[in-house]
Amino acid sequence: MEKAVVFGVAGQADLWIADLDAGTVKPLGSPVGELAQVVADVRKTGGTFVKKVDFAIAVSSAQTVFSGHVDG
To answer: For 30-64, what is each residue's pLDDT tens digit?
Structure first.
């Protein structure tokens, strides 16, 4: 897994890992160590943490993206 993104969706406690090489997205489970603390602290206050990702947006469905629309 050389290219992967760990993400969480606002309002949901779970974290996910997207393996970009494999084209898969899976629940991350319970993060441990430094990641667990950083994630907990940042998400608790409603903040975001972005590193080496230059664009991300949550949408209501893949259909929305493919139609060219972005939810406001």
So the answer is: 777 887 888 888 888 888 888 888 888 887 787 87
Distance CA 69, CA 65 (A): 6
**DSSP symbols for 3-69:** SEEEEE-TT---EEEEETTTTEEEE--S--HHHHHHHHHHHHTT----SS-------S-HHHHHTT-
41: which residues sit within 8 A by CB, 6+ positions away?
none
Q: What residue numbers bound the domain in which 9 lies?
A: 4-67
Has residue 72 been placed in a domain?
A: no
| pTM for this predicted structure | 0.74
Q: Based on the structure, what is the number of domains in the chain?
A: 1
